[in-house]
Amino acid sequence: MLLEFFTDPILRAPTIGSMLMCLSSALIGCLVFLQRRSLVGEALSHAAYPGIVASVVLAALLFPMWEGGFAVTLLVGAACTSLLGLFVISWMEKKLKIYPDSALCFVLSLFFGVGVLLASRLQFTHTLWFRKVQIYLFGQAATMVDAHIFLYGILSLVVLVSLLLLYHFLKTLYFDPTFATCSGMPIKRIEGCVTLLLVLAIIVGMRSVGVVLMSAMLIAPAAAARQWTKSLATFLLLAALLGMTAAFFGTALSLWIPGWTHAPSLALPTGPMIVLTAAAISFLSLLFAPKQGMVTRLIRLGRFRLRRRQENILKSLYKGKCEPLSATETWMLERKGWMAKGSLTREGRREAEKLIRLHRLWEVYLVHMGQAKERVHHSAEEMEHLLTSDMEKELQKLLDHPRVDPHSQPIPKGEGP
Amino acid sequence: MNPYSGKAFLDFFPLFFHRLFALLTGRLSYHKLASDEVQVYVLTLIALAAVLVGTLLVVKKMTMLANALSHTVLLGIVLAYLVLHAGAKGPLPISFPLLVLAALITGGLTTFLTQGIHQGMKLQEDASIGLVFSTLFALGIVLVTLYTRNAHIGLEVVMGNADALHLDDLKTALKVTLFTAFFVLILFKEWRLICFDPPLAKALGFRPQLFNYLLMLLASCVAISAFRAVGVILFLAFLVGLPLTARMFSYRLSTLLLWGGVLGFCTSLLAVATSRHFLTAFQMPLSTSGLCVCYIGLFFLLSLPCRPLLLKRFSP
């Protein structure tokens, strides 16, 4: 059923076309994500709109019959105004000292407003052209044909190849900018290349995602992929993969949903569906990715809190100043093997001694570092749960195996030398 | 019969001011306002509200949140509409409860999701703003498409429809503008403090976070009243473009607000007059909101060469 999307002559072009478009936008999205300028894409994609309107008119006058010429003119027109927008933004930032975000918003609304004005001129007199312009607002993959795959395939290839050529420069530039500056890298030129690639990715993606939502396809795959990896190569590959998955299921959903809602004539725009799929992937990654995911982090935190509580109960039992334990608390300690039949086991005693040893060692260490001895208790109360046995050995060596803590309490001896 | 039909660009202004004078002196009942006049007044009111909020947003460097709002407002309105008028058919009535509910949903969702993803899920700020507003916007589009069974929502979402404005819209716009003006002007001292010296504000016991929430709420109110009348793009242009233009030649918060308001009025008046002129002279209907955006751009360009002169004149 899924394979049908790649073989069926009508479904083939939209599916493969959308996937190619999202591939290039996901890759370039990673770069702007690392530059922390994800929102530039938002302004540039909106700035492409007047170019689209103007070139639809131009193409309709120049090549009324030739679909390929139409598509190329459109891409060129969109790129022109997008670049103009980019130029205005950087001019406003540098010459007028306007805060980057404000400049972005201003250019976005200005260019998009001009585009809409031009479109409103076409609305009633040239309905056919107006519909062609409308496609690019929210994207429409369904009407793509095989010629589009060819065109967008070439452009995606250009993005891919330039990225491969730039890969080593980018790696140095993003992870060690100081070194990049010192080694005399042409930083300005590399950043210019990245911006050009961004414009290219945007105009490639517009057909399936639309100008309004284009920025999401730059951000979402990168944000999702970043949660799973720290290496640049994996980051790029994963983002590309996720972007293509989102494109595939988004296109498929925009065909399936009208069927489910018993309105087969309804053509859902592909852009929002692709964006929603991509966003779902990013939210799942943000929640469940190992190490950085929110849920995994909360579970780790919960585990630590539980252990701290158990260890605190154990310690007070050992010291003999403990309130009667509740049933759950006894059960928790028995499960750990620290308690049996109402008293501490050997294991439990050893663990408690270790905690007290770590606590008092840390107090000695803090006093050694120059802290007042009245103030070290609270810090030690935390650190006793965190110190590892390697750190304990280091401390013992550094402090020369102390026997008493700053409050003249004995430090229990550990096992071994 | 619309007294403006058949008027060219330059004939528009004498008639407009003549009728405005008649309106103010009570010789013209406000029920007899022509649609061009309603457009000018609604646009001006929304521009005033947007300038009040936008100036604060620009000074506080929170413009990207305004952009986010201009996208999420669609979902806010759709959800509020589904809650209040689930079964109703026909055009979308903007009642006051709907407006408030939609503003709360819009502002709340945008602010809390953005903050939650930035702080709770540790995603960098620009990406979390972008992710949140585009997702919510996509959701809004899908809901509207499914609910209205119409795949051709296009320009009305981004541009509104200024030609369909009537007296009810004028009343809504007036309420929103007064509401915004009340909160901005009554707390003017506090806003000034929070914009320009946040550490001092904190030390004096103000809570900047609370003011940020208030600002977002006000901005979403303006966004919603602008949504149907002028579209979200013009909302954004008013919100960011006018304060930035005023910023070119004034350094005080009060002059910024004043100049923003004046520019807003000029923009609205010129845009409606131009739209009328094109209709009269070329039978060409143009989007009034689109013209407004162009005039804002034009004013910004004009302010650049005049900058040194104006600075000396108005901000000694």
Approximately how much helix is present in the residues of chain A?
Answer: over 70%
- So what's the oligomer here? heterodimer
- Give the low-pLDDT segments of chain A: none
State the helix count of chain A. 17
Structural class computed from helices and strand pairing of chain B: mainly alpha
The helix-and-strand class of chain A reads mainly alpha
- The low-pLDDT segments of chain B are none
**Secondary-structure element string of chain A:** HHHHHHHHHHHHHHEEHHH
Beta-strand content estimate of chain A: under 5%
Shape of chain B: globular
Going across the major beta sheet of chain A, what is the strand order? 1-2
Radius of gyration of chain B: 20 Å
Tally of helical segments of chain B: 14
Distance between the termini of chain B: 49 Å
Largest sheet of chain A: 2 strands, antiparallel
Radius of gyration of chain A: 31 Å
**Mean pLDDT over all positions of chain A:** 85
Helix and strand element order of chain B: HHHHHHHHHHHHHH
Tell me the layout of helices and strands:
The complex is a heterodimer of chains A (417) and B (316).
Chain A: H1 4-7, H2 12-34, H3 40-62, H4 67-95, H5 100-123, H6 127-138, H7 146-175, H8 177-182, H9 187-209, H10 214-226, H11 232-260, H12 270-288, H13 294-319, H14 327-336, E1 339-340, E2 343-344, H15 346-368, H16 377-383, H17 389-399
Antiparallel strand pairs in A: 1-2
Helix pairs in contact in A: 2-7, 2-9, 2-10, 2-11, 3-4, 3-5, 3-6, 3-9, 3-10, 4-5, 4-9, 5-6, 6-9, 7-9, 10-11, 10-12, 11-12, 13-15, 15-16, 15-17
Chain B: H1 9-24, H2 35-59, H3 63-84, H4 96-120, H5 125-148, H6 155-159, H7 167-186, H8 188-196, H9 198-203, H10 208-229, H11 231-247, H12 253-282, H13 288-303, H14 307-314
